[in-house]
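Appendix B. Raw example, untouched.
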Amino acid sequence: MYTRQEASLINKKFWTSFGMYMKPVASASGETVNWLNYKTGIKHIFFRMDVDKSKASVAIELRHPDKLIQQYFYEQLVTLKKMLEQMVGEKWAWQMHLEDEDGAIVSRIDKTITGVNVFNENDWPAIISFLKPRIIALDEFWYTAKDILE
């Protein structure tokens, strides 16, 4: 078991490594992008990557405080579901209005793998191999779909 500080340092080391690995990758628009803090350009819509001791995930997260507006954006994304799944090359999980760990109501479209542990550096290649193509595909999707959602 790791102390909170040790766990924080390992997470920071992983994300720093991932960021360095992704730094030379340009966005679909050809511009430099901060893959770890991806800016969608639409308030309350986020791309999230998460890793922990048992899984890794990539997600589009809708966090608008007004549930009706959040639902509107979710429904707009549902109309683009086929395009998204073609671009990422797989089916993702779609969840509207679930409660996050802080009690906020969010909507989430994500892909998760289990059996990987960020605290095991031997798992980092598998985690990176999972995250990299999906965040790049999300960027390509967003480049195409963002104007439809605005």
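End of appendix B.
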